[in-house]
Request: fold
Amino acid sequence: MTRASSQCSSPRLSSPQRTSPQHATGRCARRPTALRQRGFSLLDGLVGMTLMAVGLLGLARLESGLIAQSTEAQNRLAAAQLSDQLLSTVLVDVGNATCYTVPATGSCGSDTAKSTATAWRSQALAALPGATAASAVLNTTTQRMTVTLQWTGKTTNDTHTLEAATDVR
Reply:
C-alpha cells in the first residue's frame, strides 16, 4: 500500500465500502488541519468583543440620555412645587394678596407677606439651574394671581417656562 492510500484509508472499512470521491481517484482530498484552523477562534473572539463593545457603548449613551431627562424632570417638578407654594400662601392670606407680587408693586400692609414673597423669589432663583425669572403678578381687575418661573436646562440649554395661575377671592 502506498503512503497516500494509507493516509486516506480507514482501518474499519474494507475496500468495497470505500465509495467516497477521494478513494475513487486514489488521491486524498486535503483535510483542514490544526495549522489551517489556527487563528479562527482568535478572530471569532475579536468579532465577539467588538460587538459587545459596540453594545456597551450604546447602552452607556442611552444611560446618559436618561440621566439628562431625569434632571430636566426634577427641575420641572421643583418649579411646579415652588409656584404651588406661593399660590397656596396667597390663597390662605387673601387680604394681603397684593403683598405677594414679585417684584413688589404698590403698597403693602403686611411686612410678613412682603418678606415671604421676597424669600420665595430667592428660593426659586436658587432652586432652579440658570433661573432667569421668578415673578408673581396680581391682576386686580380679575383677582387672578399668575406665577411665572423661567430657567435654562442644565444639559440642553433650552429655556423652560412654567406659568401657574389661581383666582384670589
